[in-house]
Design goal:
about 190 residues, mainly beta
């Protein structure tokens, strides 16, 4: 019943085999446990919200959705009420973009370079852009008419001026004709 419902992660440990643990008190509640121990908590007291954990996010091992660090970060952002610009909001998984779709985005999370492939179903104007978590467009990778088929692109984790972007959550938006598809990207340092 929490924003981490359905998530399960492996954890790589360095130098220790144990995490600190505790119990939720007051209005707090448990969001992760490690076997029989509680290791992450959240509190929604109405006027403020907190999230705390005894493990490092970077040590979580990505699995299949929803058990990815990017899904966890997105859930935490939504818990804090961080709302993205509607121009880059995510589509529900079952909704199809019809004219275009991402086939693969790898690696995600990424550090220096991201390779992606996408498909368009007819020859049309295509725009492939990167937005930050505030909805600001920071890079344009493709802006041209492309034939139907599978296409590839690479993002070198930089903005349009070639400057490296900071760690965080970004959104790749593929626009083809009047339809679009969105892919969430996590950049780590």
């Amino acid at each position: 019943g929490t924003f981490t419902t359905g998530m399960s992660f492996s954890y790589t440990q360095e130098g220790t085999e144990y995490n600190d643990y505790g119990n939720a008190i007051g209005t707090g509640y448990i969001i992760f446990n490690d076997g029989s121990y509680h290791v992450a908590f959240a509190n929604d007291a109405g006027t403020y919200r907190t999230v705390g954990s005894s493990f490092q996010l970077g040590r979580l091992v990505d699995a299949t959705p929803p058990s990815t660090r990017s899904a966890l970060l997105d859930s935490i952002m939504k818990f804090f009420g961080i709302v993205l610009n509607p121009g880059v909001e995510e589509r529900p998984q079952h909704e199809s973009a019809q004219n275009s779709e991402f086939i693969s985005v790898f690696p995600n999370p990424c550090t220096h370079k991201l390779a992606l492939s996408y498909s368009i179903h007819a020859s049309m104007d295509v725009r492939l852009s990167v937005y930050d978590a505030t909805g600001r467009q920071i890079a344009t990778l493709v802006e041209q008419i492309l034939p139907a088929g599978v296409h590839t692109a690479t993002w070198h984790v930089s903005d349009n001026q070639g400057r490296s972007v900071p760690a965080g959550i970004y959104f790749m938006k593929l626009e083809a004709g009047t339809k679009y598809d969105i892919q969430k990207i996590v950049v780590l340092n």
